[in-house]
Amino acid sequence: MIMRPTVAPRVQTLLLLAGVALLATSCGWSLWDSPMTTVRPRSDFGKVIDELFMLISWTTLVIFIAVEALLIYVCWRFRERPGAPVPKQVHGHTQLEIGWTVAFAVVLLVIGIPTVRVIFKTQEAPAATALRVEVGGKQWWWEFKYPSLGIATATELHLPVGETVAFHLHAPDVIHSFWIPQLGGKRDVVPHRVNRIVMTPDTPGEYPGQCAEFCGTSHANMRFRVIVHEKSEWEKWVKAQQAPAAEPTDPLAQQGKQIFSSTACVGCHTIKGVSAGLIGPDLTHFASRKTFAGGIMAVTPENVAKWVEEPEHMKPGSRMPNLGMNREQGKALAAYLLSLK
Ligand code: CUA
Q1: In terms of CB atoms within 10 Å, which end of the chain has fewer, N or C?
Q2: Contacts of 156 (CB under 8 A, 6+ apart)
Q3: Is the CB of 171 under 6 A from ligand 1?
Q4: Alpha-carbon distance 147 to 144, whole Å?
């Protein structure tokens, strides 16, 4: 039986291609604008990497177009024609060989020199005046300590705009990777070694961060938020964080404080003036944060109570043990923690 070519498959293919193109553009635009974009850098570190990325992308695009154009031309020019002789086979063409050796060397230089320069630039040692932040990548949350300011926080990193910050990256358990797509990274956070990133954020705003190296059960739940402040807002934040922990006035919160200080909570968490545990996040100003538990939940009384009752259920593999708190205890603890502005 002879199959007759129909127009339908061709139309289908065209429709499919058009669909993919449409999807790709919408996808492209939303990525361009998304909070996790790397092509809208908001720091000097992000900018040098973005410039390099653009240089390589444009260079390779030009090479791609030139090679494809040549290929299409050759396919068309030397296509098989009835009666045409088989072309003479050529082995070795000195000029051509010199040509493509030199051309590739030039391409390598165009890409290689700026790449090496950016590698060195992004490995620079911090100036003594840089704001030092000790970053702890833990299973599965991020700790941020400001030794010069006496502040410790978790899951939320606050920075002043226009000021150079030096992150010192520590990993007490396994390898993580510190990444704030719009500001910079990724850089591995490795046990028994302190890696650094130095950058200057240039635009106030909120930027999401994420662990970018598989580090165990809740790797995907190891997020954080970066808030870049104007100078005056930054000073306000520092002052608030340096203040001692608030004393609860509400009876339920007072009961919560009682529970906190008389159970295993104190072994893991610091609340200045109440406890000095170092394993879990510092909770002195817990309620000043918007999210907790590796940034996966909003700080609300319901979420905090649920978390206290069954942490493992909320964040798989959570290192916070189930202390067998009942609903009433959970509510009281949540009231206390939410009073810690
Ligand atoms: Cu930490 Cu992935």
Answers
A1: N
A2: 144, 224, 225, 226, 227, 289, 290, 291
A3: no
A4: 10
Cβ neighbours for 301, distance < 8 A, ≥ 6 positions apart: 331, 334, 335, 338
- Cβ-Cβ contacts under 8 Å for 54 (sequence gap 6 or more): none
Helix, strand, coil percent values for the chain (each to nearest 5): 45, 20, 35
Residue keyed to tokens 């905090």: 304
Q: How far apart are the C-alpha atoms of 3 and 152, rounded to whole Å?
A: 74
pLDDT at 32: 62
Averages of pLDDT over runs of 10 residues in the chain (341 residues) are 61 86 65 80 95 95 95 92 83 89 93 95 92 96 97 96 97 96 94 96 96 96 96 96 93 94 93 92 94 93 93 90 90 95 92
Give me the pLDDT at residue 341, please.
92
Q: Please, are residues 159 and 144 in contact by the beta-carbon 8 Å criterion?
A: no
Reduced 3-state DSSP string for 305-327: HHHHHCHHHHCCCCCCCCCCCCH
Ligand 1 center from residue 79 Cα (angstroms) = 55
Write down the pTM of the prediction: 0.84
Which atom from ligand 1 is nearest to the alpha carbon of 216?
2
The pLDDT value given to residue 26:
61
Task: Give residue 148's region: left, alpha or beta (phi > 0; psi -120 to 50).
Answer: alpha
Whole-number Å distance between alpha carbons of 36 and 42: 12
The CB of 213 under 6 Å from ligand 1? The reply is: yes
Assess whether the C-beta atom of 211 lies below 6 angstroms from ligand 1.
Answer: yes
Task: Output the pLDDT for position 21.
Answer: 78
Going by C-beta distance under 8 Å and a sequence separation of 6 or more, which residues neighbour residue 48? 118, 121, 122
First-to-last CA distance in the chain?
Answer: 81
Residue minimizing CA distance to atom 1 of ligand 1: 176
User: What's the pLDDT score for residue 19?
Assistant: 82
> How far, in Å, CA of 294 to CA of 311, rounded?
12
